[in-house]
Amino acid sequence: MRVLVAPDKFKGSLTAAEVASAVAQGLADVHPALAVQCLPVADGGDGTVDAAVAAGFRRVRVPARGPTGWPLTACYAVRGDTAVVELAEASGLHRLPGAPSPLDATSAGTGDVIAAALAAGCRRIVLGVGGSACTDGGAGMLAVLGARLLDGAGRELPPGGAALARLAALDLSDLDPRLSEVDIELASDVDNPLYGLNGAAFVYGPQKGATPDDVELLDEALRHWASFAGPGYADRPGAGAAGGVGFAAMAVLGARMRPGIALLLDLLGFDDALAGVSLVVTGEGSLDRQTLSGKAPAGVARAAADKGIPCAAVAGRSQLSAEELAGAGIAAAFALTDLEPDPARCMADAAPLLRRLAHRVAVDLL
């Protein structure tokens, strides 16, 4: 019997690879002869590069700018001429040096990483657009790649979403010519438009430290930005991903949007890994209603179901009913809170608790 362990991260506690390792150890404790393969997954957010590396891609470190412009080292993953770029690596909330900076946080660092991948000869870029600190409509990314954003006096705009309200001209004549030869795919589970009540500023701005006044300002700035960069793309599903990076990538770079987990599973060779498997174990930190909206466990379970393979899930906590789990293709869920009711302890001791939890999976399902 073969088991495939394909979880996402437990955010704030364990990486996807650490989750997979703990589950594999727990299954082996009960069934020492069991064949277990680990394939950590991601849906385009934090951990996307790590998942690619675990699947055989090579990690590449490059200099980049953080959300407030400070220099840092970011990573992308490469195999052949395909690069996996994780926006959160350079432009993520966890990259902020201190307090949030909702009005002037920039996606420039993501442009730095894309430029490095282009220079390395990559001709396919998979861009995971989750976990951003910025609401700049992707303007910072485009500026690094050669776009010029000018105010009424012909001066370059400063970084950040708020400055877009002063945009008077967008010059794309110096955009990196290599971009026309590259296939860019966006991996995202976000279907929000660029602006409006369901847009990037109103829905995600508060998570990035934006006050109600900031949200109004950013939304108007994004609306103004769209009138220059591609008004026909502002309402497309995913335009609001990563503070509008999705919009810029589609409108200016010609990127195609795909559900993040579906794209990543294809990239990681998930279908091939399912050959001969009798059970798939997936998971994430919290199984909840967001899981049902295209998060990694739901995507893994759906792919397993397509092959007629049952899927179980492990989690820090589960807030889904048996009916909701079954509807997502998850046969059973096992939560750390079943073993330890204190959430703080669950996070602090996640690995050993997860190994114990895998004993229950082995006993109940194998």
Largest sheet: 6 strands, mixed
Q: Structural class, judged by helices and strands?
A: alpha/beta
Q: Estimate nothing, just give the exact number of structural domains.
A: 2
What is the CATH superfamily label of the largest domain?
Glycerate kinase, domain 2
Low-confidence stretches: none
Cα distance spanning the termini = 9 Å
Q: Could you tell me the mean pLDDT?
A: 96
| Rg, alpha carbons | 21 Å
Q: Please tell me what the overall shape is.
A: elongated
CATH topology of the largest domain: Glycerate kinase, domain 2
How many β-strands, per DSSP?
Answer: 13
CATH class of the largest domain, please? Alpha Beta
Overview of the molecule:
Pfam families: Gly_kinase. The chain is of the alpha/beta class. The protein folds into 2 domains: 2-41 and 274-365, Rossmann fold, CATH 3.40.50; 56-261, Glycerate kinase, domain 2, CATH 3.90.1510. Helices cover 35% and strands 20% of the residues. It contains 14 helices and 13 strands. It has helices at residues 16-30, 48-54, 87-91, 108-119, 139-144, 200-204, 212-229, 245-251, 260-268, 270-273, 296-306, 322-327, 343-348, 350-365; strands spanning 2-5, 35-38, 58-65, 71-79, 82-86, 124-128, 148-150, 169-171, 183-188, 256-259, 279-287, 311-318, 332-335. Strands 3-4-5-6-9-10 form a 6-stranded mixed beta sheet, sandwiched between helices. It has a 5-stranded parallel beta sheet with strand order 2-1-11-12-13. It is elongated. The N and C termini lie close together (9 Å).
What's the helix and strand layout?
Layout: E1 2-5, H1 16-30, E2 35-38, H2 48-54, E3 58-65, E4 71-79, E5 82-86, H3 87-91, H4 108-119, E6 124-128, H5 139-144, E7 148-150, E8 169-171, E9 183-188, H6 200-204, H7 212-229, H8 245-251, E10 256-259, H9 260-268, H10 270-273, E11 279-287, H11 296-306, E12 311-318, H12 322-327, E13 332-335, H13 343-348, H14 350-365
Parallel strand pairs: 1-2, 1-11, 5-6, 6-9, 9-10, 11-12, 12-13
Antiparallel strand pairs: 3-4, 4-5, 7-8
Helix pairs in contact: 1-14
